[in-house]
Amino acid sequence: MKRRILALSLCMALATPVTSLAYVKSPGNPSEVGKTQAELNGYSEETWAKLMDNTLEYSEIEDLVKNFNVNISSAWSKFNDNINSLNLAIDTLRSAKREMSSDATAAMNDGDIVNTMLYKAQGKGLGMSIQAMGTAKDKLSRQITAANAPIRNAQEQVVAGVEALMIGYKNIENQEKILDSMIKMYEETLRVVNQTGSLGLSTNADIIKVQSDLANARANLLTLKANKEKLYRTLITMCGWSPDADVTVADIPDVSDDDINKLNPSVDINTAIGNNATLIKNRHNTSSKSSSFVDAKLYQSSQDEDILRANINELYNNIITDKGNLAAANAGVEASKATQNALDTQKSLGMISTAQYLGGRLSVLQKQAEFESARLQLNTDYNAYMQALAGNIDIK
Asked: What is the pTM of this model?
């Protein structure tokens, strides 16, 4: 009997959750043996393959942060280790319960009433433990629980930061392309004014002006490239790559009219309130308190909800404004194409000088820069709105 009790003590000890530092990428219990990496991590083979390639897609940021960001993945790993430990403990206790049932049957066949009752009682106790552990495991396994709320909140904040970082990176990338084109035109303009200067058709002041513009553009490009490199290293590291990895940062998809039409601040505010960590904390902090404390907390929650509602409406209005600005910038780009065609025609007919032609080209580039800026501003504000719905917005 002592041996049996000792065995039960060992079984119960297995129920104590353990933690590890690595993200779970190997079988956590016998039922997971033989599964692929994609299956172990809850993805289709195709989706997992895309996550594992060396291309950073905007739509993959949440999954990359969850699985490969050092801090977030470690937190989820420790959390998931507890679930796996409960699974293992449940399997162990079920095996012990089967042994108890077998022993009870054997004792009953031998006419040993005392041990029959004892084994049955122990089996019933094991069943209750299994049921309690199963309930705990089911609660932990849910996608959204109070237990994993701190990890989810931290993850959402990192995701929001990475999304903003990627938008900023692509903005710098667009500026770099435009500056490259500007430098080429300044170089060509300098060559022309030097030629016309030798013919007395341009002044020394004209030459100095173009030299200054060219020097400023080159200096700006160097600064831009240095900042771009820093952003790139930070961006890929936060998504789980090593700082020296060679990662392709894909283009950010445009926010479509359908995306914007789906937004409805009067309805979305309920989602934002339900997900906001500050409001959730205040609501949960009213239990077992005095009535005056509860009243004060409820009043504060009402005030916070009003502020959040105002923030949601402001973000929505920003998006509508951005949409209008983008349409205007797009019209400017279309008009600049006509300007470009006219410049090409005038230059071919000798109607304008090379300097005039290049000056007109700079104006065309400016329109393109305005369009890219408007496009990324819409992405930024749309991202902020979606983060507000996820509860990741300060109430102030």
From this structure: 0.70
